[in-house]
């Protein structure tokens, strides 16, 4: 079942980042319908989060979507790859969640072609890898999860969620150490290796 806008209601960004774990991400290109379970996310907390693109409520052509409604899709480019983010808060509060890793469910052979022959865990165990595998493009910027070819479906909440500092945000003051990376405990598709500092059992 598709997730509606109600998924984001009465939640803060950290809660959304946790609740996204176990949901199913879908991208229907018309030729292929890619599906996978979200197993790793990172929360970015806007104005006071030095690691966020919208730190100090910076409003630019790139970050404009972050000031929009929850469920908006924020794509940006880094190191020749595009990264997938969902806007989480009410209009004017520029916070988002980065999708860092996915456990693929469908179109695995096509994903491998998209990944230049790389298969297995290498398909989607990183934010740039999963966007390449799922054929996400920078042109997906500005779409929403409710009226486009990208959406979320109800999945199964994980039994255990781990939290750790985000990956790839050095020299960002205290924000470097915020425990805002959330992962499905023990899932083999997780990206990078970070020492886990907290585990939460169940929901």
Comma- or semicolon-separated keywords:
single chain, 203 residues, mainly beta, 9-stranded antiparallel β-sheet, 3 helices, 9 strands, 10% helix, 28% strand
Folded structure, characterized:
This protein has 203 residues and is mainly beta. It has helices spanning 13-19, 108-114, 127-133; strands at residues 24-28, 33-44, 73-78, 81-87, 96-104, 150-153, 160-164, 181-184, 198-201. Mean pLDDT is 94; it is low at 195-199.
Shape descriptor reads globular
Distance between the termini: 20 Å
Count of individual beta strands: 9
- Helix proportion of residues, in percent? 10-25%
Largest sheet: 9 strands, antiparallel
Low-confidence stretches: 195-199
Report the total helices. Answer: 3
Output mean pLDDT.
94
Element order, helices and strands?
A: HEEEEEHHEEEE
**β-sheet strand percentage:** 25-35%
Radius of gyration, whole Å: 16 Å
**Category from helices, strands and their pairing:** mainly beta
Report a brief summary of the structure.
The protein has 203 residues and is mostly beta strands. It is built from 3 helices and 9 strands; from the N terminus they run αβββββααββββ. A hairpin with an 8-residue loop joins strand 4 (81-87) and strand 5 (96-104).
Outline the fold blueprint:
Blueprint: H1 13-19, E1 24-28, E2 33-44, E3 73-78, E4 81-87, E5 96-104, H2 108-114, H3 127-133, E6 150-153, E7 160-164, E8 181-184, E9 198-201
Antiparallel strand pairs: 1-2, 1-6, 2-5, 2-8, 3-4, 4-5, 7-8, 7-9
């Amino acid at each position: 079942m598709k997730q509606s806008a109600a998924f984001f209601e009465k939640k803060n960004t950290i809660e959304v980042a946790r609740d996204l774990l176990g949901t199913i991400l879908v991208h229907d290109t018309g030729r292929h319908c890619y599906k996978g379970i979200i197993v790793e996310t990172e929360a970015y907390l806007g104005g006071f989060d030095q690691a966020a693109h919208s730190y100090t409520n910076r409003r630019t052509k790139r970050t404009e979507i972050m000031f929009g409604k929850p469920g908006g899709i924020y794509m940006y480019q880094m190191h020749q790859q595009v990264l997938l983010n969902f806007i989480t808060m009410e209009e004017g509060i520029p916070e988002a969640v980065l999708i860092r890793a996915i456990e693929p469910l469908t179109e695995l052979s096509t994903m491998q072609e998209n990944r230049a022959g790389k298969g297995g865990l290498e398909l989607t165990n990183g934010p740039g890898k999963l966007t390449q595998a799922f054929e996400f493009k920078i042109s997906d910027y500005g779409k929403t999860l409710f009226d486009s070819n990208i959406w979320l479906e109800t999945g199964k909440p994980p039994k255990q969620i781990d939290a750790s500092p985000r990956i790839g945000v050095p020299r960002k003051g205290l924000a470097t150490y915020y425990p805002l990376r959330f992962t499905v405990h023990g899932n083999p598709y997780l990206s990078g290796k970070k020492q886990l500092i907290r585990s939460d059992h169940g929901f």
